[in-house]
């Protein structure tokens, strides 16, 4: 590759040092959002494992009514807990912003 072609290829790449404050803030926001998604996904997987271990004795082609009720209750508890925690965090953030 010729030197001029290398310069052109290199000039299209941006580094963190080349980013302006707005670009850097946007990048940080995107990274934080991706981290939150990853954390949520990990929590869901953990929750699924807990409910599976608690409710499913022997996997089969169909769920019996006891297993189905157990899984439903487990999911309901997870949703209720998540909503309560989210609400509490929102209250804390709101109080901190005042």
TrEMBL record:
<keyword id="KW-0862">Zinc</keyword>
<keyword id="KW-0496">Mitochondrion</keyword>
<keyword id="KW-0479">Metal-binding</keyword>
<feature type="domain" description="Tim10-like">
    <location>
        <begin position="31"/>
        <end position="91"/>
    </location>
</feature>
<keyword id="KW-0813">Transport</keyword>
<protein>
    <recommendedName>
        <fullName>Mitochondrial import inner membrane translocase subunit</fullName>
    </recommendedName>
</protein>
<dbReference type="InterPro" id="IPR004217">
    <property type="entry name" value="Tim10-like"/>
</dbReference>
<dbReference type="GO" id="GO:0005743">
    <property type="term" value="C:mitochondrial inner membrane"/>
</dbReference>
<keyword id="KW-1015">Disulfide bond</keyword>
<keyword id="KW-0999">Mitochondrion inner membrane</keyword>
<keyword id="KW-0472">Membrane</keyword>
<comment type="function">
    <text>Probable mitochondrial intermembrane chaperone that participates in the import and insertion of some multi-pass transmembrane proteins into the mitochondrial inner membrane. Also required for the transfer of beta-barrel precursors from the TOM complex to the sorting and assembly machinery (SAM complex) of the outer membrane. Acts as a chaperone-like protein that protects the hydrophobic precursors from aggregation and guide them through the mitochondrial intermembrane space.</text>
</comment>
<dbReference type="GO" id="GO:0046872">
    <property type="term" value="F:metal ion binding"/>
</dbReference>
<keyword id="KW-0811">Translocation</keyword>
<keyword id="KW-0653">Protein transport</keyword>
<keyword id="KW-0143">Chaperone</keyword>
<comment type="function">
    <text>Mitochondrial intermembrane chaperone that participates in the import and insertion of some multi-pass transmembrane proteins into the mitochondrial inner membrane. Also required for the transfer of beta-barrel precursors from the TOM complex to the sorting and assembly machinery (SAM complex) of the outer membrane. Acts as a chaperone-like protein that protects the hydrophobic precursors from aggregation and guide them through the mitochondrial intermembrane space.</text>
</comment>
<comment type="similarity">
    <text>Belongs to the small Tim family.</text>
</comment>
<dbReference type="GO" id="GO:0015031">
    <property type="term" value="P:protein transport"/>
</dbReference>
<feature type="region of interest" description="Disordered">
    <location>
        <begin position="1"/>
        <end position="20"/>
    </location>
</feature>
<feature type="compositionally biased region" description="Basic residues">
    <location>
        <begin position="1"/>
        <end position="11"/>
    </location>
</feature>
<dbReference type="Pfam" id="PF02953">
    <property type="entry name" value="zf-Tim10_DDP"/>
</dbReference>
<comment type="subunit">
    <text>Heterohexamer; possibly composed of 3 copies of TIMM8B and 3 copies of TIMM13, named soluble 70 kDa complex. Associates with the TIM22 complex, whose core is composed of TIMM22.</text>
</comment>
<dbReference type="InterPro" id="IPR035427">
    <property type="entry name" value="Tim10-like_dom_sf"/>
</dbReference>
């Amino acid at each position: 590759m010729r030197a001029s072609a290398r310069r052109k290829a290199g000039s299209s790449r941006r580094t963190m040092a080349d980013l302006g404050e707005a670009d850097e803030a946007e990048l940080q926001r995107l990274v934080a959002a991706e981290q939150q998604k990853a954390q949520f996904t990990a929590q869901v997987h953990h929750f699924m494992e807990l409910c599976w271990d608690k409710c499913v004795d022997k996997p089969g082609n169909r769920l019996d009514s006891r297993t189905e009720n157990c899984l439903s209750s487990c999911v309901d508890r997870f949703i209720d807990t998540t909503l309560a925690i989210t609400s509490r965090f929102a209250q804390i953030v709101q109080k901190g912003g005042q």
